[in-house]
């Protein structure tokens, strides 16, 4: 399969590339340090990426940023950043990408555990994660030509917890999380939120 991986340079993205790269042809895209540049907060950048890559069998997104701050510190700009980036960036990967996906192909996006298990400071992130999951379920119902759409909702990733100096309890290694994306690409499910 020809697979476009957006967010290929991040912790999860690198693990997905390792898991899928053994069996498939990957096109690696990122805001930085990848062969293909894309800023998912910029619709023109997404359209340009699809124009460069051409027809693919699958798109995987391990990209998207959102602000983590206490509610009384979240500004309008923080919410706008989160909505434009993690939510609308991935929504637009679907909207602008359907014409580039082969029949019976797939799109697999990334939300996160804070959609189901919010914490103090996760207001903006929980909002965009839950919104993305709702949109993907609906988009899966309307996707043409047998295209499947799923969302992976990873827990905290062990490598991220280590980098932040946080306790590792409840985290999963990125390589384990990546297997949920493999199921999204190689499986048959659609309209699902996949938890690793």
TrEMBL record:
Q: Which PANTHER family match?
A: DIHYDROANTICAPSIN 7-DEHYDROGENASE (PTHR43477:SF1)
Give the protein name, as stated in the record. Short chain dehydrogenase
Q: Which UniProt keywords apply?
A: Oxidoreductase
**A Gene Ontology molecular function term of the record:** oxidoreductase activity
InterPro entries associated with the record? NAD(P)-bd_dom_sf, SDR_DHRS6-like, SDR_fam
Organism ancestry: Bacteria, Bacillati, Candidatus Sysuimicrobiota, Candidatus Sysuimicrobiia, Candidatus Sysuimicrobiales
Gene3D superfamilies per record: NAD(P)-binding Rossmann-like Domain (3.40.50.720)
Q: What does the similarity note say?
A: Belongs to the short-chain dehydrogenases/reductases (SDR) family.
């Amino acid at each position: 399969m020809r697979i476009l991986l957006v967010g290929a340079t991040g912790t999860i993205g690198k693990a997905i590339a390792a898991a899928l790269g053994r069996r498939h042809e990957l096109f690696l895209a990122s805001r930085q340090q990848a062969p293909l540049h894309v800023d998912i907060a910029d619709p023109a950048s997404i359209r340009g990426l699809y124009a460069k890559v051409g027809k693919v069998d699958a798109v995987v997104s391990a990209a998207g940023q959102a602000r983590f701050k206490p509610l009384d510190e979240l500004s309008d700009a923080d919410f706008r950043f989160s909505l434009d980036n993690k939510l609308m960036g991935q929504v637009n990967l679907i909207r602008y990408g359907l014409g580039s996906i082969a029949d019976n192909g797939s799109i697999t996006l990334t939300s996160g555990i804070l959609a189901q298990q919010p914490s103090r400071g996760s207001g903006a992130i929980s909002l965009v994660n839950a919104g993305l999951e709702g949109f993907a379920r609906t988009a899966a119902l309307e996707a043409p030509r047998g295209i499947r759409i799923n969302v992976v909702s990873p827990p905290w990733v062990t490598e991220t917890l280590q980098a932040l100096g946080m306790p590792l309890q409840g985290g999963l290694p990125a390589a384990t999380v990546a297997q949920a994306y493999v199921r999204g690409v190689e499986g048959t499910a659609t309209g699902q939120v996949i938890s690793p």
